[in-house]
UniProtKB/TrEMBL annotation, chain A:
It is found in: Cell membrane. Its main location: membrane. InterPro entries: ABC_transp_permease, BCAA_transport_permease. The keyword Transmembrane helix applies. Pfam families: BPD_transp_2 (PF02653). CDD domains: TM_PBP1_LivH_like (cd06582). Coiled coil: none annotated. Belongs to the binding-protein-dependent transport system permease family. LivHM subfamily. Keywords: Amino-acid transport, Cell inner membrane, Cell membrane, Membrane, Transmembrane, Transmembrane helix, Transport. It is a multi-pass membrane protein. This is Branched-chain amino acid ABC transporter permease. The chain crosses the membrane at residues 20-38, 45-64, 76-99, 111-128, 167-184, 218-238, 250-275, 287-304.
TrEMBL record, chain C:
InterPro entries: ABC_transp_permease, LivM-like. Its main location: membrane. It comes from Catenulispora pinistramenti. This is Branched-chain amino acid ABC transporter permease. It is a multi-pass membrane protein.
Automatic annotation (TrEMBL), chain D:
It comes from the Bacteria. The lineage of its organism: Bacteria, Bacillati, Actinomycetota, Actinomycetes, Catenulisporales. It comes from Catenulispora pinistramenti. Keywords: Signal. Belongs to the leucine-binding protein family. This is Branched-chain amino acid ABC transporter substrate-binding protein. Residues 26-56 are annotated as: Disordered. Gene3D superfamilies: 3.40.50.2300. PROSITE patterns: PROKAR_LIPOPROTEIN (PS51257). The keyword Membrane does not apply.
Length: 318, 257, 496, 409
């Protein structure tokens, strides 16, 4: 059977896609935690990070197709990731300042936040299209993505290898997630975020500057989405409309894991990636049904656990 | 401010603390929600070392008063003065840094944090959590030490109330605002909590106490204010209020022994 | 547990109240805001389009050019004027001018006029709340709406087409979504799925779907009906779909419901694309769908897609019926129950309201209205593909509802009309406006739509014409009493 | 507090008004200091002020929205044709472009057609770009006698729908599909072929035609679909690789085709990779990267070989105008516009009627850049030659005519 033959490959692809989803989903879930807002513009935060990373790569490596090697490969990649993270964080920060803070001061209802987010999203991606053209941008390669190791169960066209890029995606995503988990659970900022997520007013009575915590939450979400965006750019493609679909998927992942819960978002992202991958292996012409399957899984999970897998009533992390 | 502010010994002399200097003063404070005026010009004073009880029926404006002091609400007119200085324009999270601790109505425990984490949140205004304070809270509430790793949401009502007070104490408050600490608790636990409040006061913390349980509160307090629909209708030393026939009728009818 | 001396405490308060650093001066802050705004506007209004081969092109042409200098100088001037105004100098001068002018006019305008004016104002004060006047007003508005295609702008075929194919259709759809979101307080992000179901019903009933194995629809006409029959059938189907979606999921709380409905839209779209049993003909869809026909009592009329007016008459008829029905509904027990559910679901449930039943009802009414709109739209387009129902459309219809003023029928109608009409107007205004040239480059229109939505929500979150109740809820929320919507409260309704 | 907000809001509004007026001012000055502002202007390429009347050529296509890039390719092509014609100035009128943005959506097809129809200066339309809007707009153009030459709507049934004034300068899916299938079966001698489509109207239409012809040629066919915007093509790519198909055909547009090419490269597929006119775009290489794009072949009913000096002139002029390389359907848009221009030239009057233009387009024989433009009675392009291109060291180069490639092998 196709599925059993390709199990490891499917699992690996699922984890790779899932860790990208997870990186984006964390931004949704953290903002949801502190503002109870579905930040639809987060997909544009992700997109801007990808753009930032690509511009950095273009500035460093140029578009002539020469692939750097050795230390400069490492250096360029790292700088691109950092550039993406910084750009995304800046966009997320300004988004909060310009769009959401006035609403928060007026205690606007959540639906107004939602429409504001949608407006911001439409505005931002079209602005990006106006600024940088409406075609896919060229992503210069910053390193040679050679085979690293071979997956068990090789297909008829040769062994399935895991490449450097795949390792980079999964490793970066996991490192970022672990660091984030430590930040959330071990630092003062983390406890501030958790406190605001649970009860903003009481957090204020403890001396937490809610405005500052919300700003920083957006920044953290932006940092992760930016790194995700650059990795996604290397793996997939970059254009001004690139945010929409991953955004929807990551949002789904966040809900799957229990929105508001950071570990839930990580779990939900990985799970969604694996579900998407496995459904391609199990269903004939499965790629056509990927979205249907993942949403059906979501509905089933929500019917069993109405607040997602790590819904707020059980999880400890914010 | 420094973490361990210089302290002076508690002025617990035979003389009543009501003779001390005023720590908190509200002068003709008016607060409105939208069109609804909740406080219609309140004058109130809490002197250093005192326990002051704020009494009144539901909706009289007791909680609003506390929320105005801690900066959650902004007065429409009037002034809140703390240690003689106006608090106008200082946001709630900075007011905490001045040593005003607030244990809010309904306890508002962080239910998805452990007891210990809740207490650590109480010390959020300091760079690090002082072990001394932690020990002191655990000494006041030994039950919390037993439950230190449990989630706040899993505690009983009484334990949650203890946690709420303990959490406020972690911020080393000079003035502690307590909102309905006895609400919904069994009489035995209420007695226990009031005893602890007295101990906290004895340690030198000034307390502004909002209570529906007027009898208990007045036994504990030095002075009391009675609020009715956003106005102070009576203010007197606690003993006088306890013996006032109008008070006995209106607030102690059920609870007076 | 320690007492700090009073003097030390007052020193602390003074320290906290102290002025911030010079660069935190609000005056400079305002300059920064204006400069940022001006720089952004310089890009937004620049007609140059960026290039994917030179990323800096637009920045160079909007900032590092005479254009950028103009904007920055203008911004600084505005800032100076605004600050001067703030410092009262100008305000006083202006005040004097106004008062002088006022005195002069008082001399010129005869007393009798002012007296008459005040009488007039009094008349209006009496008139506006008058019941009969309001009825006449409503009738007038309805009459204008019906004869819109013969008035001004709308005599142009383009605007007629937009009116019938966009405004009419989406007003209808938004009215239905208003029941779900505005009244029952359920966040539905997949509303256009029902629209699609209505549309596919139309295509199937007109005999263009499903196609045979050879792709030829004419060879396999399973059903061929007058499209007016599509309305009742679409209503039944969309209500069923609403029930299927709603029954298991309406117990979920707000945002979870949002993603599930979004998923439902995606699933409907995928099913249409993947074409199970050749029912939908996949991405190719169907063309040449017949349209409405009227043949009764010897009167015969065919709707012809090349003339938009008859479609508008049909649309306005449907809108009137729906508005009339919804008005009755709003003030009925059902409407009150929805309000109760929206404001506090737990309390409503506790007082014995079968909340799920009422929520389902709202969902099904909304769905069937969407289905109606789908039939109408498809009959005018006469063709159908899954691309007609992108996910974004669901989000847009929600935006129309909020933009207009959630919960208010007038607001929703106005909001949906404006938001659907605006991009088309900007793209091809009539000749008397901007000499018929596009007001903004068509490529930039979505950007401006997003900007309008964003600014509108920041400065007027209650929407254009909010319902009275919503406005109250919002005003209260602004001052910290209660929550403006129960939508995001946990379904279990426990305070945190 | 409130007054501060009001002042701030006032400042904001004032800034806005100022900015907009500044913008209007700069546009009337036909400048703004930028290199391309005169051509980038919204609706019409501004005509020289020489007292001649102005006629317009309409463009209907997705100028905004998800498929914007394709619409812009056409739009710039048309603008270039008009600009070049105005520069020559040998017509008794000036030409301008009127844009109608249907976002590629059927919903907007009729509205946008009406926008062009109601403007009596519009003498011909290049578009609608997509088959969906065409189906909704065709009847309107027919009724208005306004000629509509689509550079890119390939659904075969469009020309069988009785639209009197609808023409197209691309081969329909059946022609391209048949040629592509024959090429793979006979020239490449592929005994089994894997066909992937993108679930768009274009992709599905093309893949249906290819699959039908491949089966007729006795080739084993495997199919799968990956809708535009698929997040991870790896599994599909490895399916293609493990199928052992000698050739793979991707029926879809370049934006996703490029990503798929990346995945195929990564999966190590070594058969012949092919795609159609929707992907034959320099952006395919940009997206996929030079490595992954290398060796891909494209079928296209267009001849735009780099050997033609006119083509090189076109590319450089296009780049100057659009700040981008010509892409998919740029040349078709250019040709369609020039077809209309040539007809107007033939009529040689400042007041042509739409009827006359429509009649003349039916009989036109114009040598375009990509092909000879001559229509069948139903409006399809009469030249049915399909060419094969291949990416060689990062450049799309012509391999030859399918007929000769098939016959020659």
């Amino acid at each position: 059977m196709y599925f059993t033959q390709h199990f490891w490959e499917l699992l690996f692809q699922g984890i790779r896609l899932g860790s990208l989803y997870a990186l984006i989903a964390i931004g949704y879930t953290m903002v949801y935690g502190v503002l109870q807002l579905i930040n639809f513009a987060h997909s544009e935060v992700f997109m801007s990070g990808a753009l930032g990373g690509v511009f950095m790569l273009t500035a460093l490596a140029g578009t002539n197709g020469n692939i750097p090697s050795g230390f400069s490969a490492f250096e360029y990649t790292a700088l691109a990731l950092i550039a993406g993270a910084v750009v995304s964080a800046a966009v997320a920060f300004s988004l909060e300042r310009v769009a959401y803070r006035p609403l928060r001061k007026r205690h606007a209802p959540k639906l107004v936040y939602l429409i504001t987010a949608i407006g911001a999203s439409i505005f931002l991606y079209n602005l990006a299209g106006k600024l940088f053209g409406r075609n896919n941008l060229q992503v210069p390669e910053s390193f040679h993505s050679g085979p690293v190791f071979v997956l068990p169960g090789s297909g008829p066209s040769g062994p399935r290898t895991v490449k450097t890029l795949d390792v980079l995606i999964i490793a970066t995503a996991f490192v970022m997630m672990i660091v984030l988990d430590l930040v959330i659970n071990r630092t003062k900022l983390g406890s501030g975020i958790r406190a605001v997520a649970q009860d903003a007013e009481t957090a204020q009575l403890m001396g937490v500057d809610v405005g500052k915590v919300i700003s920083r939450t957006f920044i953290i979400g932006g940092l992760l989405a930016g790194v995700g965006g650059v990795l996604y750019a290397m793996f997939h493609a970059v254009s001004y409309t690139m945010g929409f679909i991953p955004g929807i998927k990551a949002f789904t992942a966040a809900v799957l894991g229990g929105i508001g819960n950071v570990r839930g978002a990580m779990l939900g992202g990985l799970l969604l990636g694996i579900v998407e991958s496995f459904s391609q292996g199990i269903i004939p012409n499965g790629l056509e049904w990927v979205d249907v399957v993942s949403f059906v899984v979501l509905v089933v999970v929500l019917l069993i656990r109405p607040t997602g897998i790590l819904g707020e009533r059980t999880g400890r992390a914010a | 401010m420094s973490d361990q502010a210089s302290t002076i010994p508690a002025p617990r002399t035979e003389a009543s603390p009501s003779d001390n200097a005023a720590l908190l003063e509200l002068s003709s404070v008016e607060v409105a929600y939208g069109g609804i005026v909740a406080l219609k010009g309140i004058d109130l004073e809490v002197r250093q070392g005192e326990i002051v009880a704020l009494l009144g029926a539901n909706g009289a404006g007791k909680t609003t008063t506390l929320r105005t002091v801690s900066g959650l609400l902004k007065p429409r007119s009037g002034e809140v003065r703390y240690a003689g200085e106006a608090l106008t324009g200082i946001p709630a999270h900075k007011i905490v840094q001045l040593g005003i601790g607030h244990s809010p109505e309904g306890r508002r425990i962080f239910s998805r944090m452990t007891v210990l984490e809740n207490l650590q949140m109480g010390a959020y205004r300091f760079k690090s959590v002082s072990q001394k304070d932690l020990d002191q809270v655990f000494e006041l509430f030994p039950r919390l030490q037993e439950r230190r790793t449990q989630l706040g949401g899993n505690l009983s009502g009484g334990e949650q109330q203890m946690l709420a007070i303990g959490r406020a104490m972690m911020g080393q408050p000079a003035l502690l605002l307590l909102d309905e600490p006895s609400m919904g608790l069994a009489p035995l636990i209420v007695a226990q909590i009031f005893e602890i409040i007295e101990r906290i006061n004895a340690l030198g913390t000034t307390i502004l106490l909002v209570e529906q349980n007027a009898a208990q509160a007045l036994k504990l307090a030095h002075r009391g204010y009675v609020l009715e629909t956003g106005e102070v209708v009576m203010s007197a030393p606690a003993g006088e209020l306890l013996n006032d026939p109008r008070i006995r009728e209106a607030y102690l009818g059920e609870t007076a022994e | 547990m320690s007492t700090t001396s009073i003097s030390e405490l007052s020193a602390q308060v003074r320290r906290l109240r102290k002025q911030d650093a010079w660069w935190k001066n609000p005056m400079l802050g305002r300059l920064a805001i204006i400069l940022a705004l001006v720089l952004v506007l310089s890009i937004l209004t620049n007609q140059v389009q960026g290039s994917s081969s030179d990323y800096t092109l637009l920045f160079k042409s909007s900032w590092f050019s005479s254009r950028g200098a103009q904007y920055v100088i203008g911004g600084v001037l505005i800032w100076i004027i605004a600050e001067a105004w703030r410092i009262q100098g100008l305000r006083r001068i202006a005040g004097q001018t106004i008062s002088v002018a006022g005195r002069r006019t008082a001399l010129i305008v005869p007393r009798s006029f002012t007296r008459q004016y005040s009488r007039l104002a009094g008349f209006f004060r009496w008139l506006i709340p008058n019941r009969w006047f309001r009825r006449v007003l409503v009738l007038a508005v309805v009459a204008v709406a019906i004869f819109l295609p013969y008035l001004g702008l709308f005599t142009l075929p383009y605007f007629q087409s937009v009116l019938a194919g966009q405004v009419g259709v989406y007003v209808l759809a938004a009215l239905g979504l208003n029941v779900v979101v505005g009244w029952a307080g359920l966040l539905d992000l997949g509303y256009i799925a029902f629209f699609a179901i209505g549309a596919y019903t139309t295509a199937i009933l007109s005999g263009k779907l499903p196609v045979g194995a050879d792709g030829n629809p004419e060879a396999h006409p399973p059903i061929h009906l007058n499209l007016f029959f599509a309305f009742p059938i679409a209503v039944v189907l969309t209500m069923t779909a609403g029930l299927i979606l709603g029954a298991p999921t309406l117990r979920l709380r707000g945002d979870y419901l949002a993603i599930v409905t979004l998923g439902f839209h995606e699933i409907v779209l995928q099913l249409a694309k993947n074409n199970p049993h050749n029912l939908t003909n996949g991405p190719l869809g169907a063309t040449g769908i017949s349209t409405f026909r009227f043949n009764l009592f010897g009167v015969h009329y065919d709707w012809n897609p090349t003339d938009s007016k008859p479609y508008w008459f049909l649309a306005i008829g449907l809108i009137l019926i729906v508005v009339f029905a919804f008005r009755r509904l709003e003030h009925s027990k059902v409407g009150r129950t929805w309000t109760a559910i929206r404001e506090d679901e737990v309390a409503a449930a506790a007082s014995g309201v079968p909340t799920v039943k009422y929520k389902l009802m709202a969902f099904m009414i909304g769905a069937s209205t969407s289905g109606f709109a789908g039939v109408l739209a498809t009959a005018k387009i006469t063709a159908i593909t899954p691309d007609n129902f992108p996910l974004q459309l669901s989000i847009f219809v929600l935006a129309y509802v909020i933009f207009g003023g959630m919960g208010s029928l007038t607001g929703v109608i106005v909001g949906a009309s404006l938001m659907t009409f605006l991009p088309f107007f900007l793209q091809g205004p009539p000749s008397w406006f901007n000499s018929g040239k596009p007001v903004v480059d068509p490529k930039d229109i979505p950007m401006w739509v997003g900007a309008v939505l964003l600014t509108m929500m920041i400065f007027r979150p209650q929407g254009l014409i909010p319902s009275k109740r919503r406005a109250q809820e919002l005003a209260q929320a602004e001052h910290g009493v209660g929550d403006a919507d129960a939508m995001t409260e946990p379904a279990e309704g426990v305070a945190p | 507090m409130r007054t501060i907000n009001r002042v701030r809001a006032g400042a904001v509004i004032a800034a806005g008004v100022f900015a907009l007026s500044a913008c209007a001012g700069s546009s009337t000055k036909s400048g703004g200091g930028s290199t391309s502002s005169s051509t980038g202007s919204g609706s019409s390429t501004s005509a020289a002020n020489n007292g001649k009347p102005t006629l317009e050529i309409g463009v209907q296509g997705p100028l905004s929205g998800a498929n914007q890039a394709l619409g812009l390719n056409i739009d710039w092509g048309v603008k270039l044709a008009v600009q070049q014609e105005n520069a020559k100035g040998d017509l008794p009128f000036n030409l301008a472009v009127k844009e109608a943005d249907d976002q590629g959506l059927q919903n907007n097809g009729a509205d946008e057609a009406n926008l062009l129809i109601q403007d009596q200066k519009v003498m011909g339309v290049v578009g609608p770009a997509f088959s969906g809007p065409t189906a909704a707009a065709g009847a309107l153009y027919s009724t208005a006698n306004l000629v509509a030459i689509s550079p890119s709507a390939t659904a075969p049934k469009l020309t069988a729908s009785g639209f009197k004034t609808f023409y197209r300068v691309v081969a329909n899916d059946n022609i391209q599909g048949k040629a592509a299938a024959d090429y793979m079966a006979k020239a490449l001698k592929a005994s089994n072929v894997f066909v992937v489509d993108d679930k768009s109207q274009y992709g599905q239409g093309l893949s249906t035609a290819i699959v039908a012809e491949l089966k007729a040629d006795g080739v084993t066919v495997e199919t799968d679909s990956a809708q535009a915007g698929t997040q991870d093509y790896s599994q599909l790519a490895s399916k293609v690789a493990s199928s052992g198909a000698k050739a793979m055909y991707y029926a879809g547009y370049y934006a996703d085709g490029g990503v798929f090419a990346k995945a195929l490269k990564s999966a190590g597929y070594n058969g012949t990779m092919m795609s159609g006119d929707g992907s034959k775009d320099p952006n395919f290489i940009t997206t996929a990267g030079k490595d992954a794009a290398e060796g891909w072949q494209f079928t296209c009913a267009c001849l735009d070989a780099g050997t033609n000096p006119k083509y090189a002139a076109f590319v450089s002029a296009y780049k100057q105008l659009a700040n981008a390389e010509p892409g998919t359907y740029s040349i078709e848009g250019y040709d369609a516009a020039n077809t209309i221009i040539s007809v107007l030239k033939g009529l040689n009057t400042a007041t042509p009627t739409r009827q006359a233009v429509a009649d003349a387009v039916g009989k036109v024989d114009y040598q375009g850049l990509s092909k000879e433009v001559k229509f069948t009675s139903t409006g399809d392009i009469s030249t049915t030659a399909v060419y094969v291109y291949q990416i060689k060291s990062g450049v799309i180069t012509l391999l030859g005519d399918v007929n000769t490639l098939v016959g020659g092998s």
